[in-house]
């Protein structure tokens, strides 16, 4: 079994484009939740979201490429470019065939789908662009990542709602660890700010009208976000032999299914995924310093996750730092786990613990250390990143510091 190093990472979110901007926002506790600008809100009751700010596709793609790419693919490609450039790898010759690309997304090209439905039903347009299906298909982003970089190994998309990115990174980790491939480019990407998608989420009555305040008394729900996080995972010996900068190490991966309710979270399911992750990595509960929580800001999720953490960690739960960076970058659904793993790595390398912002006061049912409102200086040696999705699909990653 090979050790698996992280040698590159990239991020696009409501905090900005690039890991340096992301790290600065995390440390400063600067929230990316703001009024929605990318979709009409006249028919919406909820008018806030966490969109990528000041994004101009023409700065990253020529007109021909833009015509081929839904926004979710654009965001994924930008994050992948940063991660691959940071790794210093080129996928030419034999390495291209020994490299995987595995990307998570919950829904794929919703911008393309929503726009074409509007044109068909509202404008009575009879002909669609011939690349409509290639733009909207959920595997489009990973296809473009392989084509842009010459990656010829295993490549596919994983869709498991809000756990998609963690499942994708976990499977990529397993492929590198087993020796199936030497390198994997993996993460998640999502863009859901379309009228139809927003109305569908609003119908669930779990969107906050003001902001996201996970684990806090007075929380009113989640705030939708968009973006992408991508990582380059590499056989540790391969990375060391070429003198690569190792940013961290994937230490374990755990999964579970609630086999319960389609939307209500399960304490047992969440706890099982965390236990499985610790077991997979040969980690004792006392070795974990920090948990980047799923922490959506909904009433049930935050209480259930808190109880699951207590069930797994026992007395050590009171020594853990637990925060939800969704309070900063929103809930990016299928991309959430990747953005949050990048956030965890940035904090790990920067010597700080990200805050849970917008925290008003403690909820008696949420009784852990949530690092309220301000980042905290501190070393993170080993961390977990939790993703618990609709349908009871759970995925947890463990990451270890490179130092």
Key descriptive features of the protein:
403 residues; Peroxisomal Thiolase, Chain A, domain 1; two-stranded antiparallel ribbon; 14 helices; 35% helix; globular
Would you write up a description of this structure?
This protein has 403 residues and is of the alpha/beta class. The chain folds into 2 domains: 4-241, 3-Layer(aba) Sandwich (Peroxisomal Thiolase, Chain A, domain 1); 253-401, Peroxisomal Thiolase, Chain A, domain 1 (3-Layer(aba) Sandwich), CATH 3.40.47.10. Helices cover 35% and strands 20% of the residues. The protein contains 14 helices and 15 strands. It has helices at residues 19-28, 63-68, 71-87, 94-97, 110-121, 132-136, 140-149, 164-178, 195-203, 236-241, 267-281, 299-313, 326-329, 336-350, and strands at 4-13, 16-17, 34-35, 48-49, 99-104, 155-158, 183-190, 227-235, 248-257, 290-292, 321-323, 352-353, 376-377, 382-389, 393-401. Strands 1, 2, 5, 6, 7, 8, 9, 10, 11, 14 and 15 form an 11-stranded mixed beta sheet that branches. A two-stranded antiparallel sheet has the order 3-4. The protein has a two-stranded antiparallel ribbon with strand order 12-13. Helix 12 (299-313) links the parallel strand 10 and strand 11 (321-323). Helix 1 packs across helix 14, helix 3 packs parallel to helix 7 (140-149) and helix 8 crosses helix 14. The radius of gyration is 20 Å and the shape is globular. The two termini are 21 Å apart.
């Amino acid at each position: 079994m090979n050790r698996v190093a992280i040698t590159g990472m990239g991020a696009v979110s409501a905090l900005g484009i690039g890991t340096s901007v992301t790290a600065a926002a995390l440390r400063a506790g600067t929230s990316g939740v703001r009024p929605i600008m990318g979709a009409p809100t006249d028919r919406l009751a909820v008018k806030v979201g966490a969109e990528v700010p000041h994004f101009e596709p023409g700065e990253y793609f020529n007109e021909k490429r833009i015509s081929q790419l839904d926004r979710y693919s654009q965001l994924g490609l930008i994050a992948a470019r940063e991660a691959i450039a940071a790794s210093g790898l080129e996928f030419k010759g034999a390495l291209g065939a020994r490299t995987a690309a595995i990307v998570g997304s919950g829904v794929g090209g919703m911008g393309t789908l929503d726009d074409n439905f509007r044109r068909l039903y509202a404008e009575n347009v009879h002909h669609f662009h011939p690349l409509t299906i290639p733009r909207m298909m959920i595997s489009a982003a990973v296809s473009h990542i392989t084509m842009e970089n010459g990656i010829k190994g295993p490549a596919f998309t994983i869709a498991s709602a809000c756990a998609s990115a963690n499942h994708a990174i976990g499977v990529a980790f397993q492929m590198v660890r087993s020796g199936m491939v030497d390198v994997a480019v993996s993460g998640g990407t999502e863009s859901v700010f379309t009228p139809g998608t927003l109305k569908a989420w609003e119908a669930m009555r779990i969107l906050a009208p003001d902001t996201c305040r996970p684990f806090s008394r007075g929380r009113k729900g989640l705030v939708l976000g968009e973006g992408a996080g991508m990582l380059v995972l590499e056989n540790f010996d391969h990375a060391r032999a070429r003198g690569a900068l190792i940013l961290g190490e994937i230490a374990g991966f755990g999964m579970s299914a609630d086999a319960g309710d389609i939307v209500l979270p399960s304490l047992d399911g969440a706890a099982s995924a965390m236990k499985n992750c610790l077991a997979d990595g040969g980690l004792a509960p006392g070795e974990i310093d920090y948990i980047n929580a799923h922490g959506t800001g909904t009433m049930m999720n935050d209480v259930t996750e808190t109880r699951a953490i207590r069930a797994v960690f026992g007395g050590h739960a009171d020594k853990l730092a637990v925060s939800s960076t969704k309070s900063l970058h929103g809930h990016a659904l299928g991309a959430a786990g990747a953005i949050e793993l990048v956030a965890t790595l940035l904090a790990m390398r920067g010597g700080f613990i990200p805050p849970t912002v917008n925290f008003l006061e403690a909820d008696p049912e949420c009784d852990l250390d949530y690092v309220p409102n301000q980042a905290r200086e501190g070393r993170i040696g080993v961390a977990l990143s939790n993703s618990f999705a609709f349908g009871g699909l759970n995925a947890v990653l463990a990451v270890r510091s490179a130092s």
